[in-house]
Design goal:
The chain is about 30% helix and about 35% strand. The chain is of the alpha+beta class. Strands 4, 5, 6, 7, 8, 9, 10, 11 and 12 form a 9-stranded antiparallel sheet that branches. Strands 13, 14, 17, 18 and 19 form a 5-stranded antiparallel sheet that branches.
Amino acid sequence: MTEFVILLPQPPESLGLQVGTTRSSCLCAYSEYAGWSGEQKLWVEHGWCSHFQEEMSFIVVSSPGAHSLHYSLTVRCQGGSVLSRFFAQGHLDDQPFLSYDSERGSVEPCALWAETVLGPETWDTETQDLAENGKNLRVTLADINFLKEEKGGEWSHSLQESWGCEIREDNRTRGFWNFYYDGEPFLSYHPETRSWTVQPSPAQILAMKVKNSLDADGIQSKAQWAHVQGTVCGRLRRYLNSWIAFNETTVSPKVNITCDEVLEDTIIMTCWALGFYPKNIFLTWLQDGKPLSQDTQKSGSILSYGNGTYQTWVSTRIPQGQEQRFSCHVGHSGNHINGTVSCSTALLLRSRWPTILAAVVGAVIILFWLLWCKKRRTTSAAQGPGEKSVCTFLDKHAPCSHPNKKKSYHTGTLKL
């Protein structure tokens, strides 16, 4: 049993949680107590308490010690031919930590802890295992197509293999191995009977044929099951230890502040927290050192930033010219960062650029118009009658001349 500490903004007795002490100056980074499952860590952040005005309870709860490592591999066929490309993913406690694309030919980590802790030898082993399993699964799908006797057409099917290991609450391990056909349960392996069980599905008759074929060739099933119970369960304990050790480290966020549109003499300021780990974080805007109320702020979701880290943001609208009174407070894993606003000048230029651009474009148009008019006037004077003259706003003393009237220009004065 693993002990976790969480903070809730309401009394927890109704949730069956054990109450500890009470604190009023604290922050609940996460209150995802609903649907508690597995190794879902909830971290405590001590800091600003702007969106909870009442006291919060300091709770100590216990979580079941169940953990799991499982792999899923998918192959497809089109019109009777099994496609060469296939995909696989590995999950630790339902969180992806590796991916495999046969076209790429190698495993890639997709979790920060895995990339940081697991070495090249681990990735080479995972690559070899998934490549071999993909090869065998393609053969199995080809056999299914043969048993199904489905010929012609552009039909397509998929076969997914899922295998892995679980550590139960009593610290015992249990392997599992299943097949899914077109996304529906297909077959499950039972080590007690060393045979396959057909799962209820639209392809139940086909599954029975495949079961008989697999049971007849029990050697391959026994070898794969030994791999699951031995190698995969051993990996689970090793990966879990690496994951727990890595979780004792943190990656601090980079804090950036951006200023956006000016509307009715107000500025929208956004505080970004980028590339942090673990996921739990708190952001709020401060005015003169005090948190703004939550109804004056808009917060974004915590999303993946890539490489296993996360990103999020919080924005607020403030009066233009008062930027220096505001700052962004970020709390993460016991560390606190204050980001100051320094975008007034850039924002002022950005807010006025439509007016500046319009003035520049207008000046250029007027300049070209004046040059064109001057050229037409000069041409008209040189060619004499028969040419239309152009009235310009510079010739205030001259009405529009008629085509059959001759005119000439001398030092800017119109003579008839």
